[in-house]
Every structure is written in structure tokens, then in C-alpha cells.
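[step 3/7] fold_predict: job queued, chain A
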Amino acid sequence: MSLVFWVCAIIAVIGALGMVFSKKAVHSALFVALTMISLAVLYAALEAPFLSMVQIIVYTGAVMMLFLFVLMVVGVDSSDSLQETLSAHRIPAILGGLALAVLLASQLGNFTLQNVGLADANSVGNLRGLAQLIFGDYLFAFELTSALLITAALGAMILAHREHHTPRPTQRDLSVLRFKSGRHPGSLPPPGVYARHNAVDTPALLPDGTLSELSVPKPLAARGALKGKEVMASTEIASITSNKGVDDEH
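[step 4/7] structure written:
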């Protein structure tokens, strides 16, 4: 038990420090995941399998994936400014950190690594004992924590909300703009028109026998990976053109 505690405690502290001092938001999120996994191992060592699984599934799995998803959507990267804008909060934060450090240092001599009271808490089973503590002795603290989490979620939603100074374009507006742009409002000509197959590297042939540059991807054209006109397709187009000329004369 002592070995597991000291190993997981060191890893958890390293993860916490890495989260605070990391300059990239993604790295900070990964350090938080490391700390949460260490806490899950500690819960398992304390014979609390339910809390250990919740720590892995809910916090490390769901919550951290949600953080990473938000970071990917928002697009936070190293180019964002890391300069502190609320300098007046620095002194209270330092004083609060020092007070917390003094409080923790004063309690180091009083802690013990023995599972005091754990047998009594798990006497009726881990889940039932946990339910009795949460919804019995610590019901007020549990409900207060729930209210704080809801308040934090609403605050994050309000802070992330962006006002739109202009109305969003509707589907009709986008359709009108697409036609007014003068470009191709519909689909581009598919590859292989007037050819013998529809390969992506085979350009479409126009009625006069020339290649359509719009029918093939530009990277393929830049690399020179396009196939030329097929002999049979060219012969067919030439015959159609000649027959059309004869019909016009008649």
C-alpha cells in the first residue's frame, strides 16, 4: 500500500505541475488525464472499485475527451497570446497558494497510511456504503457541489457565446450567392465523359475533343498524373463531328 501510494502520488503531482506550467492547452489536458489515472489507482488500492471505475470512465474518458473536443473546435494553439491580462489577481493568487502550502505542510505530520474506518464503510458493500455516506451524512455537501457544477457549466456557456452583428445567411441566400458568383453552381463535369471508363485521372472530353480541366483534381494535373485521350474515344468524337458537318451541309 505504501509503495502504491508514493508512486501514484508522485505521478499525480507531476501531472498537476505539468498541467499548470505547460504552454499548450492539449498538453495540459493530457497531464490532467495522467493525474486522474493516478487517482483511480489510489481508489482501487483503497478498496473502492466503484470510485476507481468512475474516475476512469467518467472523468478520464468522458470529461477529458470533452475538453479535447472543445480545444479542437475552438482551435487553441501555441500562437495564442499567453500574456496575463488580469494582473491585479496575481498577488491574491500567490498569497492563497502560499497559505495552502503552509496548511498542507502543517498537516504532513498528522497523516497516516492506514485504512482507518474503511472496513466499517464497506461493511454493507462498497456501493451501498458509498450511497449511505453521499445521501446521508454528506447530502448537503453533495447537493452544493452539484449546484456549483451547474453554475460553472452555465458560466462557461455564457463566456463562450458570441454575438452575431449580422444575421446568418439562410439556405436561400447561400443558393442565390452561389449562382451570382459566376462559377459552376452545379456539379462539375465528371471524369471519363466520352471516354471508356470513369477513372479519376481520366479527364472529361468536350464535344470538340479537347480535355476539360475542371473534370480532374488539380493536384493530379500539377503532378502530371493524368491520362491522355483514348484512341477509341477520339475516333468516336471525330466521326460524330464529321457526321454533324455532313448533316449541316445537307
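[step 5/7] annotate
The longest strand covers residues 204-205.
The longest helix spans residues 49-74.
exit 0
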